[in-house]
Input
Amino acid sequence: MILIGMYDSPFVRRVAVTMKLLGMDFEHKSWSVGKDQAEIRKYNPLGRVPTLVLDDGEVLTESSAILDHLDEISGERALLPRTGEARRRALKLMAIATGAAEKGVSQVYELAFRPEMKRHQPWVERCRLQMQDALAALDRECAQVLVGRWLLGKNLSQADITVACASTFCHEALYLDPAKLPGLDILTARCEAMPEFQATHLKFIPPAA
Output
């Protein structure tokens, strides 16, 4: 399989971490949605990442769809519960985390692609508030987890992976203070200490203001 996209994207990274945890071999194309747009669009007409090219040539796009496929083929090793309360909790946490990451990306795009004179500061501040509120909600959820446990119990799940990837991106891209989110910081640090996370970490370099 071929995974397309840079690891400084939390969406690409959560796919890469998942594949490594599941022991799935893949080739990584570290292509940028900016300078490598033409190459990405050969596989994904939207030019978005992550894009996963399967061994038979079929192409999957969007991290949620890719993760669903990876869980399907991994059988009992799936990182997302199949049914029940645990699945609902995981989906809730993942939705909050990806929402926070998306609001972070929106802020970064204002700096990276929009001329300063055309930036709409109320929009940027709204995105930042939404991101901060989402991260605060995740922090409260993490604070409720007993020491030595993961978000869904004794085993790491896709909820932990997605929350950690989103948290790292938002902190690196937007200079957030982890001291203000101690529960989230503890969970993120636990994940980032794992070899699968370390192997997929590409620090996000924020664009100049």
About this structure: The first strand starts at residue 2 and ends at 4.
